[in-house]
Every structure is written in C-alpha cells, then in structure tokens.
User: Fold this.
Amino acid sequence: QVQLVESGGGLVQPGGSLRLSCVASGEIFRIMSWHWYRQPPGKQRELVAIKTRGGQINYADPVKGRFTISSEDVKRTVYLELNRLLPEDTAVYYCNAEVSTYIQGILHTSSYWGQGTQVTVSS
Assistant:
C-alpha cells in the first residue's frame, strides 16, 4: 500500500507565498509522475501542475509563472511553491502520484491521492 501525506497549507494574504509538500511512503518501486490538483469551493477538482520522472513539467495556465513544482526523488517528496497568491487560488490542494509497485512479483502502476491541504488566500 502507498500513502501520500501533504502539508504546508494555511491562510495567507494576497500576494503572499506558501510551500506545499507531499511525501510518499509504502511499498514503492518507482514514482512515475507527480501531480498537484486543487478544488476551489463549489467547483470541480482541477489539475495544477505535473512533473514526470523524465523531468517534463507542465502547469495550468492560471498558475504559470507563479507556481513551481519540484521533487526530491530520494526523499520521495514533491513540492509546490505558490507565489503571488490570489484569492482565486483558494482551494484544497491535493497531491497525486502514479506509482509502480510489485504485487506478487508483477509490476503494477496505480494512482494514489493524498488527503488534501487547505490553502486560503484572504486579507
């Protein structure tokens, strides 16, 4: 079993910054890709950023130039730096990872989610 645990959310003023972290643990062979999603109040969950094992990075248009995704593979940790925050960035932020694990000797790749961390941008 694989677990993802996020941290780093909180209340911040417009223009401020936060750093979210997500640590993966469990029977992990390889993390294929990391994703950050967010779900604003009353809205659907949306993709924010992706980082693949090969180093490819993509961002959703609303966060380009303000958010940065990075990872430390040895620590099985992904980060999301949130800068120049806007009230519309208020959401629950979720970490997601595509993880390869061995189950009875066979390699499987599955998607895992963290529990989410609240980010509130307000003065």
Observations:
- The CA atoms of residues 4 and 86 lie 26 Å apart.
- The chain has a mean pLDDT of 96.
- The first strand starts at residue 2 and ends at 7.
- The chain is about 0% helix and 60% strand.
